[in-house]
Structure formats: structure tokens, C-alpha cells
Amino acid sequence: MAAIYPGSFDPFTNGHLDIAERALDVVDKLIIGVLNNTTKTSLIPIEQRVELIQETLKEYGDRVEVESFKGLLVEYCKHKKIYTVVRGLRAVSDFDYEHAIYLMNKKMLPDFETLFFMSNTESSFISSTIVKEVASLGGEVVDQVPEPVYRKLREIYADK
Ligand code: PNS
Which of 35, 46, 95, 105 to mutate to test the pocket of ligand 1 (most atoms within 8 A of CB)? Predict the structure, then answer.
């Protein structure tokens, strides 16, 4: 069975890594779909976000495919012919949003299904937004992001 793990991943954190690795215990193949949202400015350009995730998960070989997608997730699911999506839940505060997007996606694509994974304790407080804020202000995020992402953040904020 294959599933799509969609997200902005700006940047990919250890929380995302935990969800991806646990999903790989359940599914045979995981497609990581990095949202190319042209209306939102991102810290890391889309091609680099894809490369950083590829590098982070390279030990999984062809069980992991990382690519960008634009537009509706349900259209991307149809294009890939994969209707199962993976999402992480950190806390109750994630639930309302995840529930709403699940229902909306299900309405647009009745075959759509979501596998929700609960974050582990270590990752339950990590978010891309917090990582960016701390890193931009010179704080240490080595424990919150995979090594390739850490190097990229160091490079981005080196002269700031
Ligand atoms: O990392 P994020 O920002 O939590 O990921 C959210 C994502 C990418 C799963 C969601 O915004 C999404 O699917 N966007 C694509 C556009 C879409 O399908 N929107 C309708 C459902 S909100």
C-alpha cells in the first residue's frame, strides 16, 4: 500500500521525520508531497525543500519519493492514483483544522482517506514556524530538525 504525506515542510522538522518513519512502518511506499504554494512566501525554495527531504530519508531508497505539487491535494491524489494521505497530530489544537480539511477533501473525493499519526512526546511541541523563529533569532534548533535541514538553516541565517 502507498500513501501521500503532504505538507509545506518549510522546513521539514524532526516531528515530520517521526511521522514519515512511523508511516513507513505501516505503508510500503510513501510519497512526500511538498506544497508549492505560490501565494505564500517561503523561507526555503521549493526545489531545496524537496532535496533536503530526499537527503534526510535517503536510507529508505525507492520506498520514499519526494516531489512538489501545486493546487488541490485531492487533484494531486487523483494524478498519483493514491487516495490515502498521512497526517500528524501533535495536540488537540491540531484536531479542528485536520478534521475540517479531512471532511472537505472527502467531500471533493469520496475515495479519499487519511491515516493520522500522533506525534511522540519529543516532537509534540515542534513546528516549522517555531523552528524558523528560533533559528532566525540565533537560537539552537539542532535537536528539532534533521541534519541536512540544520545545515541549510545555518547557511540561511549565517550573516543575520
Ligand atoms: O504543512 P501544512 O501547512 O500543515 O500542510 C497543509 C496541506 C499542504 C496538507 C494543506 O494546506 C493542503 O492540502 N493544501 C493544498 C490545497 C488544498 O487542497 N486545500 C484544500 C484542503 S485545505
Answer: 35
